[in-house]
Design a protein that fits this description.
The protein is built from six helices and nine strands; from the N terminus they run H-E-E-E-H-H-E-E-H-E-E-H-H-E-E. It has about 180 residues and is an alpha+beta fold. The chain has a single domain, classed as Jelly Rolls, CATH 2.60.120.230. It is globular and about 55 Å long.
């Protein structure tokens, strides 16, 4: 028995010395983007500080090695009488009009929906979420940076939509 413990200890010692045991792991956390209502011909925005939104992110922000995946899942509900198309941007800056967001050099499209017919909704699950994400490297860089940014939603043709979305973020963190 003593011999088996010595062998097990000898096998585990290099791993422990290298720091590979329980020092790196994958974490998944979410940020709720629900409750947005877009008024026709206008945009809505929301300031996000990921550390304030998620205690998991806050606990690990200094240990993040990589942002592995970012997706938006949930529902976009078209509440208007016509077809709707929704685009979500991120930026470090606060803007007051849709045209400022669309033409700003530092605003980045991160999500684009297909056309949603009047009164219908688009359900996005994990398996098809990547089909709608754009400019993923820029979004990951925002999360690797200070994790503070503005999110803008702009609709086409003066349409109105309601979001019940979550941003799911998968990170690798460790010491």
């Amino acid at each position: 028995m003593k011999r088996n413990l010595l062998i097990a200890g000898a096998l585990l010692l290099p791993i422990i010395i290298a720091g590979c045991v329980l020092t790196t792991g994958t974490k998944v956390f979410s940020i709720e983007l629900s409750g947005w209502t877009n008024i026709p011909s206008q945009m809505q925005w929301r300031y996000i500080d990921v550390a304030d939104e998620s205690s998991d992110y806050d606990d690990n922000k200094d240990k993040i090695k990589s942002v592995d995946e970012v997706v938006l899942v949930g529902d976009i509900i078209n509440t208007s009488a016509g077809d709707a198309h929704s685009t979500i941007y991120i930026s470090d800056n606060l803007y007051s009009t849709a045209s400022q967001v669309e033409t700003a050099g530092n605003s980045t499209v991160v999500f684009e929906s297909p056309t949603i017919t009047a009164g219908d909704s688009l359900h996005i699950n994990w398996s098809d979420a990547l089909a709608h994400i754009q400019n993923l490297p820029e979004l990951k860089n925002q999360l690797l940076g200070d994790g503070q940014f503005y999110v803008y939603s702009i609709q086409s043709n003066g349409s109105s939509v309601r979001y019940n979305l979550s941003m799911l973020i998968t990170i690798t963190a460790g010491s």
